[in-house]
Design goal:
Strand order of the largest sheet: 1-3-2
Strand content: 5-15%
Largest sheet: 3 strands, antiparallel
Shape: globular
Number of strands: 3
CATH class: Mainly Alpha
CATH architecture: Orthogonal Bundle
Order of helices and strands: HHHEHHEEHH
Structural class: mainly alpha
Oligomer: single chain
CATH superfamily: Winged helix-like DNA-binding domain superfamily/Winged helix DNA-binding domain
Length: 172
């Protein structure tokens, strides 16, 4: 396990005073846990930024809209309640309401009353939403191939899958 180290304190340690090329206290911490978490976050951010930008340029929708379309399209009946959608896309109920409002205005999704529970509202894909989902999936897969898969060997891909699966299953 990595250790956390801090350079000496006080005026005697000139290297510590110069910061050894680091910025602030966090720059002086040598900890494997922080390093790995930082790599994970930066890789996620880089992939999300690249894939989101490409998706918006190629099909004209932001990544969060794609996330909504793919969750609804993958739902068993092609419909999700607003609360389930909120959980699936990690937004507050208010945030998902505003998001769905914009997607309804764009003609990609519609709200439907639930026949078995008058309190529930389902979100479904419109025909335009289904067509957009198909176009977006094709473009997104191409981006994933370029930015995630191509730089990794088959062994790297298998290792990444094993590690991510292990992390996701760790708290179950």
């Amino acid at each position: 396990m990595a250790t956390t180290t801090f350079p000496g304190r006080g005026g005697d340690d000139k290297e510590a005073a110069a910061g050894e090329g680091t910025c602030g206290v966090l720059g002086q911490i040598d900890d494997e846990r922080l390093h790995l978490m930082g790599l994970f976050i930066r890789a996620h951010r880089r992939l999300t930024d690249l894939l989101g930008r490409e998706l918006e340029e190629s099909v004209g929708i932001p990544l969060v809209w794609f996330d909504v379309l793919i969750h609804i399209g993958g739902a068993p009946d092609g419909r999700l309640t607003m609360s389930r959608l909120s959980t699936d896309v990690a937004l507050t109920t208010g945030g998902v309401t505003r998001l769905v409002d914009r997607m309804v205005e764009a003609g990609l999704v519609a709200r439907q009353n639930c026949p078995s529970d008058r309190r529930s509202i389902h979100v479904v894909l419109t025909p335009e939403g289904q067509a957009m989902l198909h176009r977006a999936v094709t473009e997104h897969i191409d981006g994933i191939e370029r930015h995630l898969m191509a730089p990794l060997s088959g062994v790297n891909r298998a290792a990444l899958e094993a590690v991510l699966t292990k992390l996701l299953d760790a708290d179950r």
